[in-house]
Amino acid sequence: MSDCLFCKIIAGEIPSTKVYEDEQVFAFRDIHPMAPTHVLVVPRTHLASLAEAGSATDAVLAACLRACAKIAAQEGLTNGFRVVSNCGPDACQSVQHLHFHVLGGKQMSDGMA
Ligand code: AMP
Question: Could you list the residue range(s) of the whole structural domain that residue 46 is in?
Answer without folding.
Answer: 5-104
